Each structure stands twice: as structure tokens, then as C-alpha cells.
UniProtKB/TrEMBL annotation:
It comes from the Bacteria. Signal peptide: none annotated. The gene is ribD. Converts 2,5-diamino-6-(ribosylamino)-4(3h)-pyrimidinone 5'-phosphate into 5-amino-6-(ribosylamino)-2,4(1h,3h)-pyrimidinedione 5'-phosphate. This is Riboflavin biosynthesis protein RibD. Coiled coil: none annotated. Its cofactor is Zn(2+). It catalyses: 5-amino-6-(5-phospho-D-ribitylamino)uracil + NADP(+) = 5-amino-6-(5-phospho-D-ribosylamino)uracil + NADPH + H(+); 2,5-diamino-6-hydroxy-4-(5-phosphoribosylamino)-pyrimidine + H2O + H(+) = 5-amino-6-(5-phospho-D-ribosylamino)uracil + NH4(+). The active site is at 56 (proton donor). Zn(2+) binds at residues 54, 81, 90. Keywords: Hydrolase, Metal-binding, Multifunctional enzyme, NADP, Oxidoreductase, Riboflavin biosynthesis, Zinc. GO terms for molecular function: 5-amino-6-(5-phosphoribosylamino)uracil reductase activity; diaminohydroxyphosphoribosylaminopyrimidine deaminase activity; zinc ion binding. InterPro entries: APOBEC/CMP_deaminase_Zn-bd, CMP_dCMP_dom, Cytidine_deaminase-like, DHFR-like_dom_sf, Eubact_RibD, RibDG_C, Riboflavin_Biosynth_HTPR.
């Protein structure tokens, strides 16, 4: 049966609900659920935090007239789970409640599910429809899908550049480029990714904390590439205040909240790092610099999304921003005096709006 306008409306509502779990449900996917009866919403919910009840559980609990569930239509953004994890299988709960129909946005690529949830529902006599707003669902859960399908974290590149194409002053002198609103937005971005990465030079010159101060949410795991352990122990990244991973060619014992991960000089750097983060169950990384790190990831195609904050300021010289062209402009908007460009990685083509 083809989807109706009401079906689309309900799935969009479920996607909006799912988005509320961003930064809290990780490393689980974000999921929303809406339950309807005869064209009326009787319950809705989302996966609020990792280890807590899933979206379907919260939506069913919100239904005050439980007897209506046997004649209900359930809209859920991801295939209901069929295995025991932190919580019991949601497919079993839907079967127990005797729901009549389930509409699913995306199938779950996790090998523990991968169609088993759908099969279990159908075997119980529940009518199941799949693929409604599938592309919107994949974008919403892009971190989860990339992690499952490519066996690496979702990589977001971010930098701020001046109108004449610089991201720092001469000799990497730190310069305030973006405005206050953009700085707040960057802190929001930090809450949405599981980890945040910088290279040695950025760590040395900026001495960043890489935490969240301007937006409510969880601090990401900090990652620094320090091949030869150049960072002094007094630097913020080594203060043990939040989980931190140092990737290095040297050996050093790990301490509380500070893990030293050895690298092989014989192998390419970033494939090693991304594979290790995959093994650590880190699903997404926000890369905040510096230019060597950003250019390397761009050149190797090891990125999924790029976010560029362009300021009207002019430096006239300094450290150049990455010059590799980008296609796949997904979003562009003004934020105070700054302009923000969001790119989704494309298979071919290289272009970027000209700097003014």
C-alpha cells in the first residue's frame, strides 16, 4: 500500500523525536516512535539515553488507553531490535502488545538485527511496511550507518577561515576568526559527536580544552595525535578531566582518563587511528585541526562531512585553510557576520564557493 500524507507526517514526527536523542543515545542509534489509532496519535517516545528504554518502549508506556494497541499503527525510524542488549527486544514487546501494523523508516544494518526484527514481527502476524522516508532516516543516523557499514567512525571536518583563506596567523599564531554565535554552535557540534580530534601543532599552539562550555551536553572523548610525545604534561589535553586518547609512536603507560595508543610507523596514520576508534566503539569524530590533519583526511577521502565557518575578516597572511575543493553542499546559512557551509562527501567532483 502506498504511503499517505498522514503516514509521511507521522514518520517525520518520529524523526523529529529521534533527533532529541542526539549526543545522549550514543553509541546506540537515535530512534523515534509514534503510535496512532484511527488517525489520532495515542503515544510517542524516543531513545533518550544509552542504556535506557528504547523509543518503542517509551511510546507504548505513553499510551493511556492500552487496549487500543491491538488496533494501532506504529511508526518507528529504525527496525525494532530483536536481541537482548542493555534492554529486552523491542520486537518482542510489540508482539506482546499485539499491535496491528508497524511502519519502519530504515532497516538496521547491525548484524545482531539486520532484518530479524522485521521477520519476527511478520511471523507474529503483524503487518510491516519499510522504507518510508528512508533517505531522511539515513541522514539522521548517518553516524550509526557509517560505523556499521564502513567499520570506522563518521568523520566530520570543521574549520573557521577568513575571507582571504587563512585559519591562523603567521607561524600558527591563534587568531579569533569566527564570531560569538559561531563559537556557541561549535560547542553544540561537540555535544553531537562522540570524539574530537586535533593534531600536535594545534594542541601545542592553542592549548585547547576540547570540552563543552557554551552548550548543554556531554563532553566528547578527546583525541590528540602526538607522534613523539611533544606535549608538556601541563597542557590541558593531558589534565585527566575527561577521557583522552593520545596516538603516538612512543610507549607510555596509560593513566586515569588518559590512554596512550601506540601507532606503527610502517602503516598509514589515519587508517590506523580510525580502525582503533572503531574497535573502541567510537562512532563519530569531529576533527578541529590543524591544516595538516584536515588536508590529509581530505586528500585520502577519509571524511564524511565538512563544516566551514567563513568570516568576513581579512588577515592578509598566515596559515592557509585547506584548498582541496568540495562538492555536495548540503546547507548554507548566515550566523551573525559569519557564513556556514556544510558539505556531505560526494563520490566525484571538486568545487567550493569562491572566497570573497
Amino acid at each position: 500500500m502506498s504511503a499517505t500524507d498522514f503516514d509521511h507526517l507521522m514518520m517525520r514526527r518520529a524523526l523529529d523525536l529521534a533527533r532529541l536523542g542526539t549526543g545522549y543515545a550514543r553509541p546506540n542509534p537515535i530512534v523515534g516512535c509514534v503510535i496512532t489509532h484511527e488517525g489520532r496519535v495515542i503515544g510517542e517516545g524516543w531513545h533518550k539515553r544509552y542504556g535506557g528504554p528504547h523509543a518503542e518502549v517509551n511510546a507504548i508506556a505513553a499510551v493511556t488507553e492500552q487496549h487500543l494497541l491491538s488496533k494501532s499503527r506504529v511508526y518507528v525510524t529504525l527496525e525494532p531490535c530483536s536481541h537482548y542488549g542493555k534492554t529486552p527486544p523491542c520486537a518482542d514487546l510489540l508482539i506482546e502488545k499485539g499491535v496491528a501494523e508497524v511502519v519502519v523508516c530504515n532497516l538496521d544494518p547491525n548484524p545482531l538485527v539486520a532484518g530479524r526484527g522485521i521477520a519476527k514481527l511478520q511471523a507474529a502476524g503483524i503487518k510491516v511496511e519499510t522504507g518510508l522516508l528512508e533517505q531522511e532516516g539515513r541522514w539522521l543516523n548517518r553516524r550509526f550507518f557509517t560505523f556499521q557499514e564502513k567499520q570506522r567512525p563518521y568523520v566530520v571536518l570543521k574549520w573557521a577561515e577568513t575571507a582571504d583563506g587563512y585559519l591562523a596567523g603567521p607561524y600558527f599564531q591563534p587568531v579569533a576568526i569566527s564570531g560569538k554565535l559561531a563559537n556557541v554552535m561549535v560547542h553544540q557540534w561537540r555535544t553531537e559527536e562522540q570524539a574530537i580530534l586535533v593534531g600536535t601543532r594545534t594542541a601545542l599552539h592553542d592549548n585547547p580544552r576540547l570540552n563543552v562550555r557554551e552548550w548543554p551536553g556531554q563532553d566528547p572523548t578527546r583525541i590528540v595525535i602526538d607522534k613523539n610525545l611533544c606535549l608538556p604534561p601541563t597542557h590541558n589535553l593531558l589534565d585527566g578531566s575527561q577521557p583522552t586518547i593520545v596516538y603516538t609512536y612512543r610507549e607510555r603507560d596509560s593513566t586515569h582518563n588518559l590512554a596512550y595508543e601506540p601507532l606503527s610507523e610502517a602503516n598509514d596514520l589515519f587508517p590506523q587511528i580510525l580502525h582503533n576508534l572503531y574497535e573502541r566503539n567510537v562512532q563519530s569524530v569531529l576533527v578541529e585541526g590543524g591544516p595538516t590533519v584536515l588536508n590529509s583526511l581530505l586528500k585520502d577521502g577519509l571524511w564524511d562531512e565538512a563544516r566551514i565557518i567563513r568570516s568576513p575578516k581579512v588577515l592578509g597572511g598566515g596559515v592557509a585553510a585547506p584548498h582541496l575543493g568540495l562538492t555536495g553542499l548540503r546547507e548554507q546559512f548566515a550566523l551573525g557576520d559569519d557564513e556556514v557551509f556544510v558539505y556531505q562527501r560526494q563520490a566525484q567532483g571538486r568545487a567550493i564557493p569562491a572566497r570573497s
